[in-house]
Amino acid sequence: MPKSKVKKKNKKSGKNQGDIFNTNRLVQTKTKKMSEIILEFAEPLLEEASDMQKGESAIAFSVIVWNLSLMPLEEQEKQKEYIIKEFSNKDKSFTKDMVEIMEILLERKNKYFSNVRRLVVNYEVGVTNEQLHLQVTSTDIS
């Protein structure tokens, strides 16, 4: 699992997600930084994030699913079961939602980012002036 560091410079969070994340774009990925790609990949979750903490959680979960998507299918299934077991709080509704979100993100990876074969090895989330910033260290696994 990638290492995460959260750097908060400003704890204010009264704006809605669109103001916080500014991720409303899908463009060519060959010239983009990995941080931009992850923010776009996480967009469905970030759109629902009502504050910085939820935005950071959305990014963390998205990074986990991103890396999961790079595994062979058999290993993906094993790791999905492990993730569900580790993150599930025994609430069947929560577990069902988490599985559904994972599937949405995996489909999104295949549809929009299938040509990006970079594993996230580390990331940092920062907040400045009520804006979320992401730095990603990744490695090519092609």
Describe this structure as you would to a colleague:
The chain is 50% helix and 19% strand. The chain has helices at residues 17-21, 34-41, 43-46, 52-69, 73-87, 92-112, and strands spanning 3-8, 118-128, 131-140. 25% of the residues are buried. It has one domain. The protein is globular. It has 6 helices and 3 strands. It has a 3-stranded mixed sheet with strand order 1-2-3. It is of the alpha+beta class. Helix 4 packs across helix 6.
Supply database-style keywords:
3-stranded mixed sheet; 142 residues; alpha+beta; single chain
Rg over C-alpha atoms, rounded to the nearest angstrom: 15 Å
Strand content is 15-25%
Structural class: alpha+beta
* Overall 3D form: globular
The low-confidence runs, each spanning 5 or more residues with pLDDT under 50, are 4-19, 22-29
How many strands?
3
Largest sheet: 3 strands, mixed
Helix/strand order:
EHHHHHHEE
Query: What's the average pLDDT?
Result: 83
Count of spatially separate domains: 1
Number of helices: 6
| N-C termini distance | 19 Å
What is the strand arrangement across the widest sheet? 1-2-3
Range of helix content? 40-55%
